[in-house]
Amino acid sequence: MIYFDNASTTNKKPFSAKLASLKALCKKYCSNPGRSSHKIALNSSKVVFETRMLLKNFFNAKSVNNIVFTSGCTEALNMAILGTVKRGGHIVYTSNEHNSVARPIEFLKNKGEITATIVNTNNEGKTDSKDIEKAITKDTYLVVVNHTSNVTGATSDISKIGEICKKKHILFLVDAAQSAGHKKIDMQKMNISMLAVAGHKGLLACQGVGALLFDETVKINPLKFGGTGTFSEQLLPPINYPESLEAGTGPTPAIFSLNASLKYLNKHFEKINKKIEKLTKYFLDKLYLRKGIKIYTMKNCYNGVVSFTVDNISTSEVVNYFNDKNICIRSGLHCAPLCHKKLGTIENGGTIRVSISSDNKIWQINKFFKYLDILLMNVNGKK
User: Fold this and answer.
1) Residues facing 70 on adjacent strands
2) Which residues have CB under 8 Å from 339's CB, separation 6+?
3) Torsion 347-379-363-1 (CA) sign
4) What is the pLDDT confidence band of residue 379, given thresholds at 50, 70 and 90?
5) Do you find a cis peptide bond into 222, omega within 30 degrees of 0?
6) Residue 382 — very low, low, confident or very high, per pLDDT cuts 50/70/90?
7) How many CA atoms lie within 13 A of 336 on its CB side?
8) What stretches of the chain show up as alpha helix (H) in DSSP?
9) Rg, the chain, Cα only
10) DSSP designation for 126
11) What is the Cα–Cα distance from 259 to 223, expressed in whole angstroms?
């Protein structure tokens, strides 16, 4: 089976990351971290704290206390948007945004709590900082930008946007679901107020964990309530981070996995991403030679994500065809309808997406094109 759906979840995990999730279930660590003072709970707590430190250093966040573990990037983005809502305020976001950004903003709009402006990306699929600045009003308190599009792979310059937000004293939230682990992200240099990441994509951990990293100046109200292990006598949640935002039992095995995968990435970051760049270039160069295909990823965009459609055949039919050949790709809107609206691909069922990891091989790409050429011949023969 050839796997080209790594933008959804990276298929090949480091052995250490897989082993770490099992380690969390062994006798020495299988307990609730932060809930008890016995040795087993303390053993688990040490690994959880170390993982926060690894995230702090990996993204150059200011404080280890302002790093909250979530179930994934969706919860992190919801926490950032819904937890900082300012009634009567204005949010700026982009046409590249995933539904985990668009839907909570639309929810707040429908309640009449905020207004919002969508900034369209440029012809390369990137967000222009000048367009963001134009959309900002006197009521704007939050700007949300997708770093790397999960549809086209286009990566925006978040540094320039961060400078604008800092100058205007506006919160800047970056959705790094697709870029974390692939792009160097420095929260302090890029003036990022809040950073949402997924563990199971470029960070190479198992599913079930993400994180929200935020600046010390940001105040986030909790969205869920329950046990925090601290100030249990109070009926209201504690005000200290990260406990106030981590009610209930956390995804400890997934956090252990993230701990190991971050250590792996610290050693192999350049090697991994140079290979992805090389493979994506090889794939795109071959794809641009084919006729009967519309490509939505720019020729020089080598981020591991490629979107296209095949003339005269639905995207779902193409995916089913490749599935029969034991090749895993994805079709549809990829949970980013605003992007497809701009691309004009909604009515035709979105795009076909091939997403590459460092585990993929040249021979796998060649095999994909062997079957693609057969498909194109058959489609053209039926015209």
Assistant:
1) 210
2) 95, 96, 97, 121, 125, 149, 151, 152
3) positive
4) confident
5) no
6) low
7) 29
8) 15-23, 39-59, 73-82, 99-110, 129-135, 158-167, 252-287, 315-324, 337-343, 362-382
9) 22
10) P
11) 25
Q: Which amino acid is at 60?
A: N
- What is the distance between the alpha carbons of residues 348 and 82, in angstroms, rounded to a whole number? 33
Q: Which residue has the tokens 């981020």?
A: 303
Domains of the chain: 2-8+268-377 (3.90.1150.10), 15-263 (3.40.640.10)
SS3 368: helix
Using an 8 Å Cβ cutoff, are 41 and 34 in contact? yes
Mean pLDDT score across all residues of the chain: 95
Measure the CA–CA gap between 252 and 250, rounded to whole angstroms: 6
Cα angle at 202 between 272 and 70, to 5 degrees?
150
335 CB neighbour count, 10 Å cutoff? 16
Q: What is the pLDDT of residues 297-310, one digit of tens each?
A: 999 999 999 999 99
Beta strand 67-70 pairing with 330-332: unpaired
Residues contacting residue 110 through CB under 8 Å, at least 6 positions apart: none
The amino acid present at 205, given as its one-letter code, is: A
Bridge partners of 84, per DSSP, are none
Position 124: which residue type?
A: E
Tell me the two tokens of residue 171: 């919160």
Question: CA-CA distance, 357 to 360, in Å (whole number)?
Answer: 6
